[in-house]
Model the fold of this input.
Amino acid sequence: MSSLRRYAPLITLVVGLASLYLYRLSGVGVLDPDEPRYLAIGRAMAATGDYVTPRLWGSPWFEKPPLLYWLTAIGTNARLGIELSGRLPVAILSLCFLAAMFALVKAEYGEELAALAVVLLGSSAGWLVYSSLALTDLPLAVFYSLAVLLAVPLAGTVRNEGQSGRFLLIGISLGLATLAKGLVPLMLAVPFAWFLRAWWRKWWIAAAGLLAVALPWYVAITARNGRAFLEDFFWKHHFERVYSSALQHVQPWWYYLPVLAGALLPWTPLAGLLLARGRKWDARQRFLAACVAFGLVVFSVVLNKLPGYLLPLVPSAFLLLAITADWRGCRLRLWLIPCALAIGCLPLLAQILPGVLAAGRLSLSQLPHIYPREAFYIALPLAVLALARRSWLVPLLVLCLVACGLYLKITAYPVLDREVSARGAWQRIKDAHGVVCDNWVSRKWAYGLALYRGEAYPLCGTPGVRYDYKLQAHGNEMPALVPADPR
Done:
């Protein structure tokens, strides 16, 4: 009974966060051009049994490695449904990583600090959002961060015998990360070379683990597809991404500063706690800081940028915050005021999110209104901040975030699904009688509708084919069926 009482708060947080991760995971259809492509490729792998060459609508697709496709194929074979086939394996992978992170950090720093690091990460905006989408960013972040966590004790010790098993696990983790997103984790692992230099005689073990996991697929797909794979996968989607604007994701160098701040929400203000500690950092803390700083600099230098690229840095950032910040000697309640306000704003976000995603921007007409229900959710974290004991502040604020997050899903998801997602568009046009063509709608809608239809719509204007309707849209607005021009 004493053990149950001791772990009751942690169990409550785990159940609350798990419910937030899993509740209505398929409550909204696909919203961007990447997720429907990855879901379609995984579904094709399950249908054909070819787990080597990714194919999109029958054609080879070499943009990403296969790990997410394999997970989606497993979900498809389990008959999870279109969205859940990819989203549920990703969500489960995320929750398993949080459990592994707790175990590894607990072994190095103790139970209390491990719980703090995991709870902060698990309730952060960036980790929550990407844990609910069938995208490659979360699998990469999981396995790269697992390698970082395994390397932390090595950075803080003088070379001695043993640790072969840990190096093998580091290599296996990096190998799985390369199956999630190619060469990216190897680039991010550059700080390992300096902080683990005293262990250089063990590096071959990590290299062997990496090659044993990743090399078979790379050899198999190269043998089947040859130069076409090498040029598209390595040259176009790795090296051209550094300098070419052809991939259409060009952003300024400072792009990731606000992205990182947003990914850490609602705990972003707690980064100020790092400045309140005067003690010198040890090698483990410097290693974590180097991983975050190096990744931030490299991604900022690269010409093409997307928010999800930064996700692998988020676990290291929260662990560094948990072990470095002066949680007992500072005015914690004061630092948590903006965090509580950010949590309280989630119900207001539920009002404006559909309009922002549909229009791509926030306008004055979309500003939220505070009704009694919204006022309750806004007041809840502030009341916790004012009344709770110091040791309960963070756990109770996390539970407030869970409540506000569930409210956001309940209220915003139906609107998003109906008015913003490709599933909502498909429901409106799926019963059309006649031949439909794609009149050059945006990639978001073209790929999303193809996912639900099972194949892509042919482009309008194909010679010798008569079309009854065409899909037409202005900008990124939801496409509609209009009569095709008579031939």
Notes: The chain has three domains: 1-22+331-420, 31-329, 423-483. Residues 393-419 form the longest helix (27 residues).
